[in-house]
TrEMBL record:
Protein name: Uncharacterized protein conserved in bacteria
InterPro entries, alphabetized: DauR-like (IPR039446), DauR-like_HTH (IPR039445), YheO (IPR013559)
Domain YheO-like: 10-120
Tree of life domain: Bacteria
Residue ranges of every copy of the Transcriptional regulator DauR-like HTH domain listed in the record: 146-205
């Protein structure tokens, strides 16, 4: 591949990098490497989180790609860290020329610091104590209906609110056969969990009866 074609490829990679950086700002650093010039491979850094600069050398992964065209095109979601110790989740994508030789790399580095803090806060927020006192503020059995709907949807690689009409009809039959439609306010519970009207649930139930 000629230098002109190489430069054209790099220009396209740069456009992709810009789009990704704008989508995932400010949490994800996106770096474009020119592997034809490993000592000064960094062409651009978007959402600079690592403190590196344009013109700095490539990393170990870059050298591994330069040395072997058989190196994997994509190394996704591997543990990494910035120089100050912040934890990072990284993905590295190699770009080849027409001859199969690596000429560039597109790297994404997601700063996990904020997300881990959010995870810790959410865990604390939803944590419940081990009190022996139990209280139910909704009709008995409605949670069983929700759980069964979730299981049914998960088996179809869907969510309750994305089920199609024929899948909803079959779900109603499943709930009836398992006795869950006999639970007080079952129709209201099903409607709320599926995000549809009670009239629709009654219609599905009528068609299956």
């Amino acid at each position: 591949m000629s230098d002109q074609k190489d430069n054209s490829v790099l220009a396209q990679v740069e456009i992709i990098a810009q789009g990704l950086s704008e989508t995932f700002a400010p949490f994800c650093e996106v770096v474009v490497h020119d592997l034809k010039n490993p000592e000064h491979s960094i062409l651009s850094i978007h959402n600079n989180l690592s403190g590196r600069q344009v013109g700095e050398p490539t990393t170990e992964l870059g050298h591994a790609r330069i040395e072997s065209a058989d190196f994997p095109n994509i190394i996704a979601n591997y543990a990494n860290q910035f120089s100050d110790g912040r934890p990072v989740k990284s993905t590295s994508i190699g770009i080849k020329d027409e001859s199969g030789k690596y000429i560039a790399a597109l790297c994404l580095n997601l700063d996990m610091t904020l997300f881990r803090s959010m995870q810790s806060m959410l865990s604390q927020f939803i944590d419940v104590g081990n009190s022996p006192i139990k209280e139910h503020i909704e009709p008995n059995g409605t949670e069983a209906i929700r759980i069964r709907i979730d299981q049914y949807a998960a088996a179809l690689a869907a969510t309750p609110r994305t089920l199609k009409a024929d899948e909803r009809k079959n779900l109603i039959e499943v709930l009836r056969n398992e006795g869950l439609l006999d639970v007080k306010k079952s129709m209201e519970t099903v409607a709320q969990h599926l995000g549809i009207s009670r009239a629709s649930v009654y219609l599905y139930a009528k068609k299956e009866s």
